[in-house]
């Protein structure tokens, strides 16, 4: 890594010159008992040779062995799976994870990050609502990985949203549906844009007619509002941004006399437990929530230890369509 533009030598310069991880340099000066005597002597010799300031050597930050996981809505059960995967993987490496709810607000997300950065070794940000530029600023301050969002210059792990949509659209077409409406979630949600575009692309390839409505809140209430907008006469099939919205849509349309799958087929996203308890149970695209959280933390810890480059390609994990009772043949 290049020295800072002001010429000041950093622990990253020392690490590069010594052929060790930045965390090893930090531990040499803050927790020498956790570094072998030979390695510590080597790092100290290199630090002196490259001009690493003695004041910084005395005050190099110790690892807190604490990570932060930010989620956009703690009320959405989908994030429980992500957090559990993150928590178990972190625990195996001797780390704890604090869970922080940003309540679908990019402004709150930025405020929470500013407060927590001095306390943690790295950050997992799930379904961020922050602007790209703000995320890049954070990524320059602390190791960070995005979940369910891709951004050039930052590491990320996401489910294959487009692949999941294509599978759902193939299923609806096989059931004889020629029309589909996609119900938008939050405008700031990266995954919402990917899913909407995938619906349009798949519809064109399959000879279906696709339209969209929204945006709506990614909640039961948002789905109910979408049902009222669709009204008693609407398309034969609907794909909702997430399961919470799909459940609200199902109940809202039922209140208007339209039942699934008799009058309309409904597909959600996320495979939350509530979708399995409905009558009929919800057809949904299931992302690997726990694997997303586990993979994010494994990747983050590799960056903290310096064993992985800071800007790898984005990782995509496969989804699967779970066909249940809310989809069926189109009415003739």
Automatic annotation (TrEMBL):
InterPro entries: HTH_LacI (IPR000843), LacI/GalR-like_sensor (IPR046335), Lambda_DNA-bd_dom_sf (IPR010982), Peripla_BP_I (IPR028082). Pfam families: LacI, Peripla_BP_3. CDD domains: HTH_LacI, PBP1_LacI_sugar_binding-like. The keyword DNA-binding applies. Residues 9-69 form the HTH lacI-type domain. SMART domains: HTH_LACI. One of its GO terms (molecular function) is DNA-binding transcription factor activity. Keywords: DNA-binding, Transcription, Transcription regulation. This is LacI family DNA-binding transcriptional regulator. It comes from Tessaracoccus defluvii.
């Amino acid at each position: 890594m290049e020295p800072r533009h002001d010429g000041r030598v950093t622990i990253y310069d020392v690490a590069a010159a010594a052929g060790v991880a930045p965390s090893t340099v930090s531990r040499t000066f803050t927790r020498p008992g956790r570094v072998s005597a030979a390695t510590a002597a080597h790092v100290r010799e290199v630090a002196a040779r490259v001009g690493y300031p003695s004041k910084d050597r005395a005050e190099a930050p110790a690892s807190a062995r604490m990570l932060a996981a930010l989620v956009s809505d703690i009320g959405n059960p989908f994030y429980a799976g992500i957090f559990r995967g993150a928590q178990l993987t972190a625990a195996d490496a001797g780390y704890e994870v604090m869970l922080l709810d940003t309540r679908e607000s990019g402004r709150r997300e930025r405020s929470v990050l500013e407060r927590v950065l001095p306390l943690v070794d790295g950050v997992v940000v799930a379904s961020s609502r922050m602007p790209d530029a703000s995320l890049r600023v954070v990524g320059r301050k602390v190791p960070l990985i995005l979940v369910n969002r891709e951004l050039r210059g930052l590491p990320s792990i996401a489910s294959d949203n487009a692949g999941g949509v294509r599978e759902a659209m193939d299923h609806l077409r096989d059931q004889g549906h020629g029309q589909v409406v996609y119900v938008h979630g939050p405008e700031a949600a990266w995954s919402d844009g990917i899913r909407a575009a995938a619906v349009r692309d798949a519809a064109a390839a399959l000879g279906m007619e696709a339209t969209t409505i929204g945006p709506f809140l990614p909640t039961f209430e948002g789905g109910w509002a979408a049902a009222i907008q669709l009204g008693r006469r609407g398309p034969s099939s609907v794909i909702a941004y997430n399961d919470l919205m799909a459940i609200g849509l199902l109940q809202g349309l039922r209140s208007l006399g339209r039942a699934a799958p008799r009058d309309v087929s409904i597909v959600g996203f996320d495979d939350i437990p509530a979708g399995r308890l409905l009558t009929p149970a919800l057809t949904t695209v299931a992302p690997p929530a726990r694997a997303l959280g586990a993979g994010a933390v494994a990747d983050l810890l590799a960056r903290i230890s310096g064993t992985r480059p800071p800007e790898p390609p984005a990782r995509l994990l496969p989804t699967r369509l779970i066909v249940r009772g809310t989809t069926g043949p189109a009415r003739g």
